[in-house]
Design goal:
The complex is a heterodimer of chains A (about 120) and B (about 110). Chain A is an all-beta fold and about 120 residues long. Chain A has strands at about 5, 10-15, 20, 25, 30-40, 45-50, 60, 65-70, 75-80, 90-100, 100, 105, 110-115. The termini of chain A are far apart. The mean pLDDT of chain B is about 95. Chain B starts with a strand and ends with a strand. Helices cover about 0% and strands about 55% of the residues of chain B. The chains are: A mainly beta (about 120), B mainly beta (about 110).
Chain lengths: ~120, ~110
């Protein structure tokens, strides 16, 4: 079974600084996808970034980038130039690829990110 | 394009009652998944529907059920509510089951008294 672990329940960053959120996962599968979702307080869960496991190149989306270390089963999220609007719960998640058919999301427990002005 | 919508946004029920939650996926999306979010257990997968058929089911009791209609809208039902069923219920849609990325609705906050 797949598991996703986020070891940092809470993190804090100064506005305009950089922060890295950690995520490790455990899977015996070779084909899977990894995600970071953001859930602001009382607001909708939105996709931040997505990584295909078969791609070695780390995904980037504007100020958000990942450090994907497949052998170590590590998938950390780096937020550069942090903004007040980045304050939220961040969830790391994985989806197993069943040969073209995708499974359900397996989530970590989340990391609550605070941004200080 | 409109996002995933869920109704109602908030519900208060008492133990023993039943409840039905509704989810309308993004236009063109045929797969709908349901997740339960609680402070203690985090986000847990309930079930997924695709083309009106339950494709996958998480580890929840039979009191939790769902269905999907021909227009891809989905409902989930919880019968004989327990206090522990209080949670945020999230619906997510994706285009097909071969699509990896799911998009979430705002959720329905269920409180069981």
């Amino acid at each position: 079974a797949q598991t996703v672990t986020q070891s940092q329940p809470e993190m804090s960053v100064q506005e305009a600084e950089t922060v890295t959120l950690s995520c490790t996962y455990d899977t015996s599968e070779s084909d899977y996808y990894l995600f970071w979702y953001k859930q602001p307080p009382s607001r909708q869960m939105i996709l931040v970034i997505r990584q295909e496991a078969y791609k070695q190149q780390n995904a980037t989306e504007n100020r958000f980038s990942v450090n994907f270390q497949k052998a170590a089963k590590s998938f950390s999220l780096k937020i550069s130039d942090s903004q007040l609007g980045d304050a939220a719960m961040y969830f790391c998640a994985s989806v197993r690829d069943y040969g073209g058919s995708q499974g359900n999301l397996i989530f970590g427990k989340g990391t609550k990110l605070s941004v200080k002005p | 394009k409109a996002g995933v919508t869920q109704t109602p946004r908030y519900l208060i029920k008492t133990r023993g009652q039943q409840v039905t939650l509704s989810c309308s996926p993004i236009s063109g999306h045929r797969s709908v998944s349901w997740y339960q979010q609680t402070p203690g257990q985090g986000l847990q997968f309930l079930f997924e529907y695709f083309s009106e058929t339950q494709r996958n089911k998480g580890n929840f009791p039979g009191r939790f059920s769902g269905r999907q209609f021909s227009n891809s809208r989905s409902e989930m039902n919880v019968s004989t509510l327990e206090l522990g069923d209080s949670a945020l219920y999230l619906c997510a849609s994706r285009r097909t089951v071969s699509t990896d990325t799911q998009y979430f609705g705002p959720g329905t906050r269920l409180t069981v008294l």
